[in-house]
Amino acid sequence: MSPEVQATSLAHAVILSLLLVLIDALWLNQGGLAFLVGAFVLLVGLPRSLQRKFAPTRRQHLRNLGIYLSAVVFVFSLNHLNNQVAQSRADVLVSAVKNFYSENQRYPQSLNDLVPRYVEQIPSAKYTLTSNEFRYVNSEQGVYLEYTEVPPFGRPYFSFNKGQWLYMD
Fold first, then answer.
1. Omega before 116 within 30 of 0, i.e. cis
2. Fewest CB within 10 A of the end CB: N or C in the chain?
3. What pLDDT was estimated at residue 4?
4. H or E element in which residue 68 lies
5. 83-167, which class in CATH?
6. Does the pLDDT value for residue 109 go beyond 60?
7. Are 77 and 24 in contact (CB under 8 A)?
8. Mean pLDDT, the chain, as a whole number?
9. Cα–Cα dist 20/158, whole Å
10. Using one digit for the tens of pLDDT, what is the confidence trace for 32-85?
11. What is the 8-class DSSP label of residue 27?
């Protein structure tokens, strides 16, 4: 295979991997696409690359599969890191709401009531383009702080009435 074709193949693998990271880690923050790509690489791509008819291009195929699998691992790592950031920021907000309650004997009506005395600003939950906000509810049914861990579901929330983290769905 010519060096030009190999370079084009490498460029395509890198571009597709970058798209996977951008879409699945920084936009959707789900890991669903990465899971499908990883499953396809392991269950279809790898066995196919090891067939005898692909012997002349086997190294190139395996290199590209390695690039795709690296992107899959990177997506899962970024998603995990993003969820750790969200949990850490949520813990700060929970503490601020508790401090507000201890000083005022009532819960704040909104997170904005915490600014600037208890927190400098209300942070984004995550570094993603979607599902990156905290939701605070103060109603007759209860008071809680929620964020989305794995869109569209997967919502941990802190129940101030129960004093613990729970999982909505």
1. yes
2. C
3. 53
4. helix 58-104
5. alpha beta
6. yes
7. no
8. 91
9. 32
10. 999 999 999 999 999 998 887 877 888 999 999 999 999 999 999 999 999 999
11. I
**Which of 113, 81, 82, 87 has its CA nearest to residue 100?**
113
Retrieve residue 87's tokens.
């949990």
Furthest-apart CA atoms within the chain: distance in Å: 74
* AA identity, residue 41: V
Please report, for residues 50, 66, 91, 110, 131, the alpha-carbon distance to residue 45 in angstroms, rounded to integers and kept in the order given: 9, 10, 42, 51, 32
Rounded Cα distance, 97 and 9, in Å: 53
Q: Tell me the CA end-to-end span of the chain in Å, nearest whole number.
A: 51
Q: Is 41 left (phi over 0), alpha (psi -120 to 50) or beta?
A: alpha
- Single-letter code of the amino acid located at 164: Q
d(Cα 75, Cα 9) in Å, to the nearest integer?
Answer: 22
Distances (CA, A) of 116 to 88, 93, 105, 108, 119: 19, 12, 19, 13, 5
